[in-house]
Amino acid sequence: MKETALVIMAAGIGSRYGAGIKQLAKVGPGGEIIMDYSIHDALKAGFDKVIFIIRKDIEAEFKEVIGNRIEKVAKVQYAYQDLKDLPAGYSLPEGRTKPWGTAQAVLAARDIIDCPFVVINADDFYGADGFRKVHDYLVNDMQEAGDKLDLCMAGFILGNTLSENGTVARGVCKEDAQHHLLSVTETYEVAKRDGKVTGKVKGEDVTLSENDVVSMNMWGLPASMIKVLEDRFPAFLDKVPEGDLKAEYLLPMLIDELIQEGRASVTVLPTHDKWYGMTYQEDRAYVEQAIRDMVEKGIYKEKLFE
């Protein structure tokens, strides 16, 4: 069977979460963090190895909290996201402290990604269904030859992905009747207000439906996607206005460009699992309770990997 990898983007600063590294907050009854559940579900779905994308400055704590433990149940590799990891001829703008975004994060693993992979956020709880569907697509359906890149994504229902403690950013998707992605629009400040879900697109207010399909950065990608990320990074950097220290090279925006250019086909794999995330400090108690409820229902064991 074709080898597949779980790639976890865990280098985010977590500025909205407050004190501490949110990806490493313990939320499970056995001291598990959110990543434990993603790894558990991915391994159960059939993924063969785990690639952590982290920052060098959190490496020791990261390995102590989760890395060393996961090495006992799966093959583990590390890649390191670095602000200075830029194409030849480009340099870090003075004053830039914000990471370059999800596309640059995946690019940090370019030397070790050698098979189809699913990429996820470290601080999002996705549920098992998305991992099963993406793995099955990567192994059984993905075409790795042809004029177009063959990609897939787990499509979540917007109403299942909102935080009660503040706004979130979501990639709002449009798809055709065959579940092929037509576009993904990065939408910010998404929240339910006065019974309606609203957000902002390029600074303009938009009204959304709770039934809209959204991307939660759970993409199924071929190894060849790495070269695309590498080739398009300089063009992104060239478009960043001088003095803009927050522009991000984002996977959803890049994939949308590829779709519009006819260079990629993306199959949306619908999932109705509820998302839980650690966007804000106040989210932690809610996530802990949700996981306790799933343990009581027998969905997960109290000590996950025992």
Keywords:
single chain; eleven-stranded mixed sheet; alpha/beta; Spore Coat Polysaccharide Biosynthesis Protein SpsA, Chain A; 7 helices; two-stranded antiparallel ribbon; 306 residues
Model description:
This protein has 306 residues and is of the alpha/beta class. The chain has one domain (5-296): Spore Coat Polysaccharide Biosynthesis Protein SpsA, Chain A. It is 27% helix and 27% strand. Strand 2, helix 2 and strand 3 form a beta-alpha-beta unit. Helix 1 (34-45) packs parallel to helix 4 (128-141). The chain is globular, with a radius of gyration of 18 Å. The two termini are 26 Å apart.
How many strands in all? 13
Runs in which pLDDT lies below 50 for 5 or more consecutive residues are 13-18
Tertiary shape: globular
CATH architecture annotation: Alpha-Beta Complex
Summarize the structure.
This protein is an alpha/beta fold and 306 residues long. The protein has helices at residues 34-45, 59-70, 102-107, 128-141, 225-239, 251-260, 283-296; strands at residues 5-9, 49-54, 75-80, 117-121, 124-125, 149-157, 168-175, 181-193, 196-201, 204-208, 213-221, 264-271, 276-277.
